[in-house]
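Appendix B. Raw example, untouched.
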Amino acid sequence: MVAMQYTIHLPRDYDSALIRARVEQRSKLFDNLPGLAHKTFLFSEQDNIYAPFYIWKDYNAAQKFLMDDLFKGVIETFSRPRVRTWSVLASLYGNRAHQPTFCVMEGDLIAPDEKLPALLERERKNQEKLKEKHDGLYFHAIALDADRWEIIRYSLWRDRKSAAKLDADIIQHYDVLHVSEPK
């Protein structure tokens, strides 16, 4: 699987109602989209950032999206953004009884001498502990950027209060406006 995210930095005076209306209109196009395993429409009103996050079943599905009319709509509205990609190493669902409203993106650089199999095993164990200890966890994914040698952790939570206290080099918080997943 491949994770993908683009970040749109909106002007300070941008009306957040426009983003919410866009998500309301376009989210239906992604529900049950072939090749898509997961999409979250993310927004940080505090930072004026719109940053959808995708997990595709394979690279062909991700590539097809970038060449298709759905992404053309992003380009026409915001211009063509830089798209980050990662290889998904592990993902799991937590409590799916609630709808997530809060997202945490964490990023850590991987030390040059780090043994990657040991790192992956440690990350998977930490992921399982998060699931066991936090009823508010909806979804968690671990992904690798082998260009920057960075690991990211993407987690969706019932709300800000239920989110685990996390420690990483980089942490970004978002509101979840909609989640699209195969039914």
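End of appendix B.
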